[in-house]
Amino acid sequence: MKEIFLCKSDEECAEYLKNLVVQYKEAGGSFSHEQLVCDYLRILMHYILLTRPESERNMDSVFKLMGASFKEKGYRTPFWAIIKEATAAYKNDPVFYLARTVETEITNDDLEEIFSFMEYQLMQQADQKLVEEELGQLQVCRVRYQQNKVRNIRMARNVEEEKNRADMPFMEECRNFIRDYTPRKIKEYLDRFVIGQDETKEVLSTAVYNHFLRIVHPEAHLIKTNVLMVGPSGCGKTEMIRRLTDLVPVPVVISDFSGIVATPWKGRNKEESLLNLYLKAGKDIFLTECGIVFCDEFDKIIPAKLYSKGGDINNELQGQLLGMFEGTDIDVPLQDKSNGQEILMMNTTDILFICAGAFEGLEKIVRKEYVQSGIGFGSDVSTEENFEMTGELLKTEHLMEYGMKPELAGRLSTVTVLKKLDRETMKRVLVEPEDSILSRYEREFMVEDNVQLRFTDEALDVIIDRVNEMSIGARGLNAVVRDILKDALFEVPTMPGTKEVLITAAVARKEGKPAYL
Q: In the prediction, which pLDDT does 148 show?
């Protein structure tokens, strides 16, 4: 049986399986649905040979996938969820195309027959010790998953509601949104809170508008526009999403992807972001499936991360994200119940995914190509000092060289690059936006004590100097301002008669006390 892992093509694999079935029948074995069994085994082996690292091309993987195929009537199993994601990643693959039929027709009785077939194949090996080991693994998978299939309780979908999603209250809000907000108006809203980054605000505004068009007009089959935002820490990526959260009529969640691992590895999995979206939607599955997921620190899942058997766990995760970003059914574990774990099947077709990260080292990859060739620059400009990465210069090939799977890069159809905030822009971020850092502290002094807070221009310059030393962009503004004001925040409430707090450059440098006037 192990020779199957040496097959060079799907056709060779299918022929090998066919011969094994013939031998099994000659030895007295039988299948209730022989062609169905052959197609199932062909799909299973094709998945392992096409997507799994060489270290996992073994009988143990076969047994686990077989065990994960057991199902309750009408419920998708972990195995078919995996195949669904692979089908989305390899859309024109004829073997995965078979899965649509096999999944609906195969039964647990067929799986029992396949386990017996595997047991026969193992018994043909000469190494008795190996036979005992692999038979033990086979039986463990057979029993374990038969038990687990009863413990995993899938939540029922309301079929009638699903048919009438267009009549749900939130759909009217979505229709009102595209009536009231064009991409230009969405950008104008973001301009109130985020300084600069016009290219990214335009890209994001267009993607959000397109998202609601897709929700309201499913019959048009509009293209899904997932977004990749590339930019250093503290340049406005997360702030834009926070502001959109207050604007759009669907749930938006910000999910930190820095610690995400591939399912089913122990730790935080990709389903966590979907669960948070479900909770944000008030456990309304139909509203959830129209939501927006912001995948922050997305670049952290790109570098190779090897595990004990030599495989790349981040490569696995990228592969699993293909189906989720494109649109597929995902099993989302909810909470542990006394009789098992509740499972929610969520379709991600209409969920917008916005990914963001610093992608340190990516600019060097892009710079290497354009500086050497002189593309995009005048003839007198060929030095690295003059180079600035833009969304127009960043290509899929650069993301692939960085370590992103080409299929995943293809799912992020719109890429935008944010600029590092220069000194002048940082100062504008501090004082200009509606609800800026300074305006928040001004309100804090005014609301409780009716005291005016004022900074000199020189003090603002010192704040920018201190923030730039932290190298975390605008994220450092609040920490620095809070540090400067901590004495005043403590003292003013016990100083009746104070009308104004003045912060000078010396105070901002922590070399003096605020002036209480």
A: 47
**Alpha helices (H) along 152-270:** 159-163, 169-180, 183-191, 198-216, 237-247
Burial of 63-77, coded b for 16+ CB within 10 Å and e otherwise, reads: bbbbbbbbbeeeebb
Residue 465: count other Cβ atoms within 10 Å of its Cβ.
14
Number of helices (H), then strands (E), in the chain? 23, 11
| Residue 500 contacts residue 452 (beta carbons within 8 Å) | yes
What average pLDDT does range 23-36 have in this prediction? 86
- Flag the least confident range among 228-237, 293-302, 309-318: 309-318
Give the dihedral sign, CA 437/438/442/448. Answer: positive
The whole-model pTM stands at 0.68
Q: Could you give the CA distance from residue 435 to residue 154 in angstroms, rounded to a whole number?
A: 44
- DSSP H or E segment with residue 150: helix 128-151
| Phi then psi dihedrals of residue 324, to 5 deg | -60, -40
Residues found in the chain: 517
With CA atoms as reference, report the closest residue to 483 among 471, 498, 470.
470
**pLDDT at site 160:** 59
Is the bond preceding residue 514 a cis peptide, omega within 30 degrees? no
Type and span of the H or E element at 276: helix 271-280
